[in-house]
Design a protein that fits this description.
With 135 residues, this protein is mainly beta. It is built from no helices and nine strands. Strand 5 and strand 6 form a beta hairpin. It is elongated and about 50 Å long. The N and C termini lie close together (7 Å).
């Protein structure tokens, strides 16, 4: 049985590209695809490419779902894994998401990783938590 470990740290967004689709009119909620690149610091040292779907209300708040390939070193192990995120954002840009490691997505020394957690971003500061185990 694997020991469960909690990783924490910060996320820095390095790029963001968003494209709207299925537009109706200016008063309707917006649908968009988005993609980006983030840097992770703390117990997870690495980077991540992500792509997702966004729903934005006319007031600027909304929801998103995305997949993210995360590469780096976690708990002294090097490799990659995929996170599935579901989250919300406010009109002022604050956001939060819950995530889980996609089963079977671990590579290298992170093969077999499982876990859950999430992130919160407010006033330009983003922090994460990942409760994980590796065989």
């Amino acid at each position: 049985m694997s020991e469960t470990t909690t990783a924490t740290g910060t996320i820095e967004s390095k790029s963001w590209d968003q494209t709207e689709y299925a537009e109706i009119d200016a008063t309707a909620p917006k649908l968009a695809t988005a993609r980006g690149f983030d840097l992770y610091r703390g117990d997870l040292e690495g980077d991540a490419d992500w792509q997702g779907l966004m729903f934005t209300n006319p007031d600027g708040s909304g929801t998103f779902d995305s997949l993210q390939r995360t590469r780096g070193t976690l708990g002294g192990r090097t490799g990659s894994f995929v996170l599935r995120l579901t989250g919300t954002f406010t009109a002022t840009g604050d956001s939060r998401a819950d995530w889980s490691v996609v089963p079977g997505s671990g590579t290298g020394e992170l093969t077999g990783i499982s876990g859950t957690g999430g992130y919160a971003s407010s006033a330009g500061e983003s922090t994460y938590t990942l409760v994980y185990s590796c065989p």
